[in-house]
Amino acid sequence: MPSKWKSTVPRWGLLLLALALLAPGACTPDKKAQEELQKEIQGLKTEIKALEEKLAKIEAGQQEILSFLQKTPAAPAAAVAPPAGPEPLTVSQLLKNKEGFLGTRVTVKGMPGTVLVHHQTMLMKAPEGTVEIFFGGIPDLATVNRLTSTSLDQAVTVTGLVNPPGKGGGSLRIIAEAIEF
Known about the structure:
The chain folds into two domains: 3-71; 89-180, CATH 2.40.50.140. By secondary structure, it is α/β, with parallel strands linked by helices. The termini are far apart. The chain has helices spanning 3-27, 31-71, 77-80, 91-96, 98-101, 141-149; strands at 89-90, 105-110, 112-116, 121-126, 129-134, 156-163, 172-180. The chain is elongated and about 110 Å long. The longest helix has 41 residues, at 31-71. A seven-stranded mixed beta sheet has the order 1-2-6-7-5-4-3.
């Protein structure tokens, strides 16, 4: 064997012997640390028991609610139906009390007048004047396209927000949210 191997072998042996002697001491936990760990485990067990008791109370409450709901008779289907809304206004009614409707949402029914495609507006006429309907608030583009491409010969129902006339006066304006025809 070469001489350099003879000098390194005993060092390795001593190193392994030292590690073997230190390893059992490093792996055995301290009694104090072991006691703290046991206390934490006991505390967690106590918390788990408390949570289980709370859960049992909640489940009992749910069972009481279910039994109560099963005992009460179901409401008739007619009572669940939403009530019918008020009748839509006519253009004349809107124009007679236009100050009272400014800034509110209304439903107006009447005969359509001129449709201005490039402005996306429609006029509704009555003997008292006209109301200008803007299509800009309608989310359904198919409805807007249908309004601007067909001749309207029947009454339409417009739901929207009433705005005052522009700076030059003119007619009352409604920003339409829905149009039925």
